[in-house]
Amino acid sequence: MIEMVLDIATGVLLAGGSFFLLVGSIGVLRLPDFYSRMHAAGVTDTLGAELILLAMILQTGFSLITVKLIAIGFFMFFTSPTSTHAVANAAWAAGVRPLLGKDLKPGDGEAGPKDGAAS
Amino acid sequence: MLRGIILALGLFGLWLLLSGVYKPLWIGLGAGSAIAVTLLVMRMDVLDSEGLPAQMRFGTFRYWGWLQAEIVKANLAVTKILLSPRMNISPAIIRIKPTQQSDTGRVTFANSITLTPGTVTVDTDGDAFIVHAVDESFADMDALADMDRRVTVIEQR
Prior knowledge:
The complex is a heterodimer of chains A (119) and B (157). Chain A has 119 residues and is mainly alpha-helical. Chain A has helices at 2-30, 34-60, 64-93; strands at 99-100, 105-106. With 157 residues, chain B is mainly alpha-helical. Chain B folds into two domains: 2-44, no CATH class; 61-154, no CATH class. Helices cover 58% and strands 11% of the residues of chain B. Chain B contains five helices and three strands; from the N terminus they run H-H-H-E-H-E-E-H. The model of chain B has no long low-confidence stretch (mean pLDDT 86). Classes of the chains: A mainly alpha (119), B mainly alpha (157). At the A-B interface, helix 1, helix 2, helix 3 and strand 1 of A face helix 1, helix 3, strand 1, helix 4 and strand 2 of B.
């Protein structure tokens, strides 16, 4: 009984994870420029990867493999933003500027009217 | 020295978790590697508050939980944009000044922005972060200021 519930939950999580991986890929194809495409890739390596890891954790029960899967999730939590930033920063340093605004005009990277400081 | 001990114990724990073989030889090899790596790291002189942020408080875990919830919300919002038939986006660049004092705190904030889909920290400009948002709805200064405040709370004191 419990096994069946676990299997169903695993299936739902895997389907959800696959859905977000697919959405991320579609986004990479549909979005207009380098920087906006990066956001679509972010969907893939956050929610997509997490749901699939969670599904695998449900299948392993509680064992050493569970701990390893959690460790994988933990490391992805730190490495994925770091690598995303490295790519974004390399493009920025090389002079690639994003398309900005409703009409997607090439911007000069200057902050718009939403400029402000956190306080 | 304390950081060295913490690092060695952490590495040894990781070895035990990943190896799964508990024979004296394997455990001995693990202990040897942990000590050797710790000595190397100490010789490289990178065993500081950045290399081993032992100053992070328990509140960090609460922050991760909060961040995870934010990530799920942002994912759903980005998904809605990506699947809308007419993609009506208005990308924006914003600048935000972090209020953290330490480099570790600032990196935590910048990485949190990047980890949340829809916003990516691109560069720093003086003491401000340059953030690219996929749509104006993600360039929410209040939400970013809230995240900034939460990171400052868990920062080293």
